[in-house]
Amino acid sequence: MTRTVRIGVDVGGTFTDLLLHDPRRGLTWPGKLPTTPHAPNEAITAGIARLLEETSTAPGDVAGIVHGTTLVTNTLLERTGAAVGLLTTSGFSDSLEMGREIRFDTTDLLARPAQPLVPRQLRRGVPGRITADGRELHPLDERAVRTAVDELVDQGIEALAVALLHSYRNAAHERRVRDLVARSHPDLPVTLSSAVAPVIGEYERASTACLNAYVQPLMSRYLDDLRDDLTTMGIDAPLRIMLSGGGVTTLEDAKRFPVRLLESGPAAGAIAAATVARALGEHDVVSFDMGGTTAKIAVVQEGRPRLKHDFEAGRVDKFKPGSGLPVRLTVVDMIEIGSGGGSIAAPDALGLLKVGPRSAGSVPGPVAYGRGGERPTVTDADLLLGYLDAENFLGGEMRLRTREAHKALTREVAGPLGLDTTDAAAGIVEVVTESMAAAARMHLSEQGKDPADFALLAFGGAGPAHAYGLAKALKIPRVIVPMRAGVMSACGLLAAAPTVDEVRSLPSPLTGVDWDQVAALYDDMTARATETLQPRDPALAHVRRSVDMRYLGQGFEIEVDVPERDLGPAGVGRIRAAFESTYGAVFGRCLDGAAEVVNWRLSMRLPGDGTSTVGGHPQGGDAGRGVRPVHFPGHGLLEATVWNRYALTPGTELAGPAIFEERESSCSFGPDCRIRVTDDLTLVAELDR
C-alpha cells in the first residue's frame, strides 16, 4: 500500500508544534508540547510518538516528515557555534571587521557593531589572485594554504570558511583549497563562499561563508541525531527541512548549507498564511504569528509572501540596519520582535513598564505553567484578563495556576507601579500590543503600504488572543483566524513546496550583456537545482527567472522577474521596461540613464501538498461553553460568550464580545466585532470603524 501520512514539526522557543496529515483517511491531527531546549529532538520524537499513538498510525506508514527549526538562529544569538578558521586572499583577512565602514547609528557614540564570528587570530591570508573578470592573475600558493590550515587546526578550529577574492566569477582557487584540505584534514568541514553565496560583495560573501561554517558542525550532528532517532522509531521516510525562503530541501542539502535554515521556523508561518489567504480569496493580508518567544509579521500579497535576498543576522539592535552580520540568502521578508507569550514583564530603572525581549521560554516558562517560573509574563497577564481558561489550556492537559500568576504579577509589576493587579495585567497587554503595532507600521511603511488596506491573519499559540487589540491599534478592519491556528506553522511545513534558489553574479550594463555567458550560468543553475530536487518528472518543475538590477552608479539593486524568452538580445527592451515598472513601484519615480544587471537568479519549485491541511470540519455537539469576564482593550471588563471552535457550524454569524477556544490556542473578539464562520471553520471578524 502507498504510504500517505506526512508530519510537520516546528520547533519554537517555547512549544514544539506538530501536525499529522493523512489524505487517505481524511485525517489531520495536531499536537503541541513544550520544547526541550537542551535537546530539541527529544520533544520532536516524543511528539511524533504521541501523534502516531493517538491516530493509530504505524511508523512504517509515514511517507515524509518536514521540519522547521530555530536552532541556527539560536546558535548565532547565543554564540555557541563552532570555532571557525577563515582563509582569504592575502591582504584581505581584516575585511570581516572593516565591513562596510559605516556606523549603523551615527548618533550613538557607544554603538558597536556585531562582533565577527571569526576572531583575528583565526584568519589567514594566502597568496593567489583572481581578477574581477575571472582571470587568474597570480596562481594559488598551495604550500601557503597547507601551512595556514595546519596552523588553524593546531589552534583548535572545528570548521573552515574559504572566501577568496572574486571567487563568484571563478571558483577554481577555492575548489583547490577544498581539495588540499580534504587530503590533509579529511574530517574538517569546509565552506566555500563560491558555493554558499556566489555573488558579488566580498564582505557579504565572506560573512555568509563564516556563518555557514559556524553552525555546520552543530546542525550536522543535530540532523543526524534526529534522523537516527526517527529510524529507531521505525520511521524510514525522507526528512526534509524548511528553508528561510519558504521552500523545503533535502537533509543532505540542509547539512551542507545550514545557513539557509536561518529563518526556517518563521518562514513556515508565512507559507501557512499565504495558503489560508489563497483559500479564502484574500489578496492582501498581514501575517501575524505570535508564539511563546517572539512575534513575526509579514506581508502576503496575491497569495505569496514577499521575499528578499539579503538578511542581517544577530543584530545588536533589532531595529537598526547595519548592526548585524550580513547574510546573502533568500528569506521571507518579515520583521520579528521579542514579544511572545513568554515575554517577561517588569518595571525598568525609570519605573516604566517593559515587556520583553527576555522570555521565560519553555523552561521555566510563565509562572502559570507551574514549571518553576517566578517572573510574570504575557501569558500570565492573558490568564488574569480572561483570554485563557485555566482548566482548558492545551485541552485540559496543562492546568494553569491562576493564583500563582496573580501573586507574581502583584509582586513584580502591580506593587512597584502602584497599580491594581488587573490594571497591571492590562498594561502588560497594552505595552506588548503597541510594540507589535509599531513594528508592523514600520515594516509596512518601508514597503509603502497602509495597514488599513489589509486583513490581519493571526495564528500561533498567542496570536489569536492578541489579534483583536493589534487590529484596533493598526486600524485594520478585518481579522482572520484559521482553524488549528496554534499549530499553523506546522501546517505551513506540509504546504511548502520543495524549492531550490540559485544565484550567480555577472555584472554588466543591460545593453552590453554577454548572453552566451548568461546562458551558461542558467544551464549551471538549472543543473544544480535539478540535482538537488531530483524531480520524477522534470516537466512538473516550475522555474522562475529574475535579475537584480540598478541604475549605473547606484549601490543597491531591485529584483525584476524576467521570462526565459527575454533572456537574449531581443528581450533587452522588455527587461528595461520591467525594471522601470518595478523601480517606479518601489520609489515612485524612474531615473534617466543606463541600467545594469548585477545578479542572475533561478528558482526551481516542485508541486507542494497544497491546502488540504488547512481548515477543519464541524464535530457536532454543543458549541456554547457559557460566559466569563474578559478584559478587552478599550472596553474594560465585559461578560464574553465562550465558544467551542470544534462544534461551530459553517455559516454561523456571531457578535462579540466572544472567546473561541480550541486545544492549541484561544482567540478573543471585542463587542465591536461581527464574526462569521466559514465552511472550514475559519473565523472572519469585521471590526466596526
Keywords:
alpha+beta; nine-stranded mixed beta sheet; 31% helix; single chain; 27% strand; 689 residues
Any overview of this molecule?
With 689 residues, this protein is of the alpha+beta class. It is 31% helix and 27% strand. The strands form 9 sheets. Strands 13, 14, 15, 20, 23, 24, 31, 34 and 35 form a 9-stranded mixed β-sheet that branches. Strands 3-2-1-4-11-12 form a 6-stranded mixed β-sheet, with helices on both faces. Strands 6-5-9-10 form a 4-stranded parallel β-sheet, with helices on both faces. The longest helix is centred in the first third of the chain and has 31 residues, at 202-232. The mean pLDDT is 90.
State the gist of this model.
The protein is α+β, with helices and mostly antiparallel strands and 689 residues long. The chain is built from 16 helices and 35 strands. The strands form 9 sheets. Strands 13, 14, 15, 20, 23, 24, 31, 34 and 35 form a 9-stranded mixed β-sheet that branches. Strands 3-2-1-4-11-12 form a 6-stranded mixed β-sheet, with helices on both faces.
